[in-house]
Specification:
The structure is a single chain. Helices cover 24% and strands 24% of the residues. It has helices at 54-62, 69-81, 107-110, 115-119, 124-129; strands at residues 2-11, 14-23, 34-39, 48-52, 66-67, 86-88. The chain is α+β, with helices and mostly antiparallel strands. It has a 6-stranded mixed β-sheet, with helices on one face. Strand 1 and strand 2 form a beta hairpin. It has a domain at 2-88: S16 Ribosomal Protein, Chain: A.
């Protein structure tokens, strides 16, 4: 009988598991038919915690392979997050971010206008009457900003 189970690798006190399809009579870490993913229970940083080839798992289950209880839970977890079967590492515990300080405001923008002027929208004519300069209009195609149009 074929089974889908975990094979332990990694160093002492640092486990890492391969999801393997193996004959039921073979050893836990021994001969296998196919590797269909991995599980890293102590993943940190940007390392993937779980990666499962869901298509191959479906195939092996359709031809009669029985997943172990832990593998079945891992496959369910991989299906929840998406079709690619990759579950990222747990996010590190980080203190909440402080709001960014507000950008300095120019003095001209800070000055308050009387309530009557604030209620009425300004027009180009009122801007001229107050003595403020208008911005120059952008030059037409082929003309420089300071050049006058040529009469050719």
């Amino acid at each position: 009988m074929v089974t889908i189970r975990l094979a332990r690798t990694g160093a002492k006190k640092r486990p890492f598991y391969h999801l393997t399809v193996a004959e039921n009579s073979s050893r836990r870490d021994g001969r296998f038919i196919e590797r269909v993913g991995f599980f890293n229970p102590i993943a940190t940083g940007g390392a993937d915690r779980l990666k499962v080839d869901l298509e191959r798992i479906e195939y092996w289950m359709s031809v009669g392979a029985k997943p172990s209880e832990r593998v079945l839970n891992l496959v369910r977890e991989a299906r929840k997050v998406g079709t690619d079967g990759i579950v990222g590492a747990r996010p590190p515990k980080v203190a909440p971010a402080k709001p960014a300080p507000a950008a300095p405001v120019e003095e001209a923008a800070v000055e308050e206008a009387p309530a009557e002027e604030a209620a009425a929208p300004e027009t180009a004519a009122s801007a001229d009457s107050e003595g403020e300069e208008q911005k120059p209009k952008p030059a037409a195609d082929g003309e420089a900003a300071g050049d006058e149009p040529s009469a050719s």
